[in-house]
Amino acid sequence: MTSKTKLLHVVSVAAILASGLATGAQAQSLSELEAAAKAEGMLTTIALPHDWCGYGAVIEGFKAKYPGISVNELNPDAGSADELEAVRANKDNKGPQAPDVLDVGLAFGPAAQAEGLVQPYKVSTWDSIPDDAKDAAGHWYGDYYGVMSFLVNTDLVDNVPTSFADLLKPEYAGMVALAGDPRASNQAILAVMAAGMARGAEPGKAAAEEGLKYFAELNKAGNFVPVIGKAGTLAQGTTPIVIQWDYNALSARDTLNGNPPVEVVVPSDAVLAGVYVQAISAYAPHPNAAKLWMEYLYSDEGQIGWLKGYCHPIRFNDLAARGVVPQEVVDALPPAENYAKAAFPTIDQVNENKEVVVGGWDSVVGANVQ
Questions:
Q1: Which position among 28, 106, 152, 367 has the lowest Cβ density within 10 Å, counted as fewest Cβ atoms?
Q2: Domains along the sequence of the chain with CATH
Q3: Coiled-coil stretches, from where to where (predicted)?
Q4: Max CA distance (Å), the chain
């Protein structure tokens, strides 16, 4: 194992998540599961952009491994709240608009469980998923994490900002955007908390309140652009600076391939890590295909697929300890120091932040992000 790998895999997700209670569904025979999934013939996903965590290649890998199962992709740009609403809206619908599986922000997993929107299932690699990164019953479990960063178009930005404090400077007028609607997008909701943490507030309610004040100031100064930032809007100059997860920023950098040139910066005043979780809809029209999808995602192949997309998979420690991560993948990863100083909010802190940000964005900031 390289020294870089060692540095990366020491990052702990301890204290991120609350534990579940009951014993959940156990993984069944993979051959039986595959046969049942192929009989269903389809898997319906939602909110999986192909440039997010390498999902394009991951989906193709799943289809190649399990021919005969088509993947129906719903609304790739949906936020976590939109995913839960799609489950609610399609409880009695067994058609193509009903999602089978979810990939949502940490706060949305327990919320979906409490509402009865997800069903338990334990993948065959269950024991190598850290206990503090999963519901003990298997209703949801961590899939990957990254840290909040800035994606900067250096054709348009002369002085690359290195902190949230920098973004308030007059030179960034009309430049700064979020990568989602902070009333629905987990990525944007946590960007607000990161901004609050940059001002010294503790993760949770305090950072949410301070983060809303920060974005109100950013908006009043004319620096905030109420447009959902993407690689395309960054390249066009609509949003020259986008606040987003580092893995999305790095993927956008690769996609743009120097046109325009960009830099990815982890802000010096707040290194916030964000965990996402996987779950199966309680109303999945294709429950066996959903379980097989989970098995693929949590296999070594699926986990390394996410890693190739710059996302640190939840089983990274296990992969690194067994020496199964290809060296070229390790070499392409961001610097280890990006993660060594990262703060992992607890589930209570993430929930507190979500409630304050979603409830207060319109009244405090007043910018309608679209």
A1: 28
A2: 3-144+274-337 (3.40.190.10), 146-272+345-361 (3.40.190.10)
A3: none
A4: 61
